[in-house]
Design brief:
The strands form two sheets. Strands 1, 4, 5, 6, 7, 8, 9 and 10 form an eight-stranded mixed beta sheet that branches. Helix 3 packs antiparallel against helix 5. The chain is of the alpha/beta class. The protein is 33% helix and 20% strand. Strand 2 and strand 3 form a beta hairpin.
Length: 212
């Protein structure tokens, strides 16, 4: 258990996971334009409100494509290996992070709400991390992790042959953020809408238009 109180002014890194491929969209989903901007840009914008610095973890060989669309202050890091699953993406994000805590989100969640990020950061205090549970399922890629203990646990788990983030939680003190806590600030769970189909793409675009 991580008993150390994290100072309220401790540095926070925002990390966008964009290492997956998408045959449905014909390109990395982070680069697909939604409401005139690449999806990854929407997520970066939300994270900037709570993070001191931003990094984007991408698939091998795609860094240049992301550097063309992201601001110069965004650190772009490539996964060392492919096929290792989401745990490798988290390791890639945590390794170069400057923050004591890292708030992570997938690149295909353009409706991410900053208030949800703030809640997860707050809930990670005195713990090793905070992970939402939505509709009975943990959301390990929409979470806040304390860098050092989580990086150690993630590496240990991946080395043992397991690839799911939740497999590493047995080595950590994780605060599960209940659905009702999320619903109080994001009643439609917009932050967890992953764009995996044209229908979801259209839904997200409509909701972005409503926010203007």
């Amino acid at each position: 258990m991580n008993d150390q109180l994290l100072h309220p002014l401790a540095m926070i890194t925002g990390a966008v996971l964009s290492g997956g491929s998408s045959s449905r969209f014909g390109a990395s989903k982070g680069l697909v334009k939604l409401d005139g901007n690449p999806m990854v840009s929407h997520v970066v914008r939300a994270l900037r409100e709570v993070a001191d610095d931003i990094l984007v973890a991408v698939a091998p060989g795609t860094a240049s494509s992301y550097s063309d669309i992201l601001d110069e202050d965004v650190l772009i890091v490539e996964d060392e290996r492919t096929g290792e699953g989401p745990l490798q993406g988290l390791i890639t994000s945590l390794e170069p992070a400057h923050g004591e805590r890292v708030i992570v989100s997938p690149c295909d969640t353009p409706l991410l709400r900053t208030d949800v990020c703030r809640l997860l950061i707050e809930m990670s205090d005195r713990r090793d991390g905070a992970v939402p549970m939505i509709r009975g399922y943990l959301e390990p890629l929409h979470a806040c992790y304390v860098r050092d203990p989580c990086l150690k646990a993630f590496r240990k788990t991946l080395t043992s042959g397991r690839r799911k983030p939740k497999d590493a939680y047995e080595h950590l003190d994780i605060r599960v953020v209940e659905e009702k806590e999320i619903a109080a600030i994001d009643p439609d769970f917009d932050s967890f809408l992953n764009i995996n189909s044209r229908r979801e793409f259209d839904i997200a675009e409509g909701r972005l238009l409503q926010r203007r």
